[in-house]
Design brief:
The protein is mainly alpha-helical and 330 residues long. It has one domain (68-329): Mitochondrial carrier fold (Alpha/alpha barrel). The chain has eleven helices and no strands.
Length: 330
């Protein structure tokens, strides 16, 4: 046997012995680790949270929990926002509903809990969309911050905006089916009783839509949804980071800085994204007519028809309601 073969054999034996010793050591230490975890669960939890896997996963987990909590609070506002956007469709004049009037009408026709119609879809949407959106944004920002530190510079507004746009667009594509189900559930009450789908839950909505209209129907309105998400994230995440950066020199508490930055970010997010949110709602609500056609062929067709038939200001109808909906998420 050659010297090189002997060397390789000895190296393999050495590695095997090391692996066995490591395994024995781990087995011997396991009871001690479990005992320490039982005696001090808080420290064990902290150790677990600081593992590389959890450090990478926490931005996504925190984002999802934050989004779902906000949705639970503002779901009635979202319901009212959708009804306002769908009122007077195709007419230049038509009704000019107010948030209070819409809420009163929904309650009068059913019950207070009808304001929470589509909550399961809203929660699923946040579990998917916000988890991915904030997780991607945080991951992108960490990468940008690390690169800037290596170059001896700071992350600029343009880089924050780019991270927000990319995070929003990616997350919107993933969350579009849940978003579609939410709009369908919230708009169902506007149809005559005989035509209502009466979805029982988001799962029921997703299954019936995919079965009756095809699986691709779950991505109806995906283009404006992605553009809306990018516009919203540009306003929300980029301006939030920028506002906090600008407020840093002032002697304000962390909570005050966060709330002030959220209010500023919420305004810009609403301003940039509301027209796309409006079109998204119209496209996701529409269903085929008896002749097999749709009211709108796509995002640009919807923009043109609404601008021509209902006026440009229709895209910003319900801005106050939309802002109230967006600010808690910021």
């Amino acid at each position: 046997m050659s010297s090189s073969a002997n060397s390789a054999l000895e190296a393999a034996k050495r590695k095997t012995n090391e692996a066995v010793q490591t395994a024995k050591s781990t087995i011997q230490e396991t009871p001690e680790v479990l005992t320490k975890a039982a005696e001090n669960p808080a420290k064990a939890t902290q150790d677990f949270l600081h593992t590389p896997f959890m450090r990478a996963a926490l931005p996504f987990i925190n984002g999802g929990i934050a989004g779902m909590t906000a949705t639970t609070v503002i779901q009635p506002v979202d319901m009212i926002k959708v009804r306002i956007q769908l009122a007077g469709e195709g007419a230049a004049g038509g009704p000019k509903p107010t948030p209070i009037g819409v809420a009163r009408d929904i309650i009068a026709k059913g019950k207070v809990l009808d304001l929470y119609t589509g909550l399961t879809a809203g929660l699923l949407r946040q579990a998917v969309y916000t988890t991915a959106r904030l997780g991607f944004f945080d991951t992108f920002m960490k990468s940008l911050t690390k690169r800037a530190k290596e170059k001896g510079t700071k992350v600029g507004f343009g880089e924050r905006a780019g991270a927000g746009l990319a995070a929003g667009g990616l997350a919107a594509m993933i969350g579009n089916p849940a978003d579609l189900a939410l709009i369908r559930m919230q708009s169902d009450g506007l149809k005559p009783l005989a035509e209502r789908a009466n979805y029982k839950s988001v799962v029921d909505a997703l299954l019936r839509i995919s079965r009756n209209e095809g699986i691709t129907a779950l991505w109806a309105g995906c283009f404006p949804t992605v553009v809306r998400a990018m516009a919203l994230n540009f306003g929300q995440l980029a301006f939030f980071s920028e506002a906090k950066s600008q407020l840093a020199p002032y002697n304000l508490s962390p909570q005050t800085k966060t709330l002030t930055a959220s209010a500023i970010a919420g305004f810009f997010a609403s301003f940039f994204s509301l027209p796309f949110d409006f079109v998204k709602t119209r496209l996701q609500k529409q269903t085929k007519a008896p002749d097999g056609t749709f009211p709108y062929k796509g995002m640009f067709d919807c923009f043109q028809k609404v601008a021509r038939q209902e006026g440009l200001l229709r895209f910003y109808r319900g801005f106050g309601t939309y802002y109230v909906r967006i600010a808690p998420h910021a």
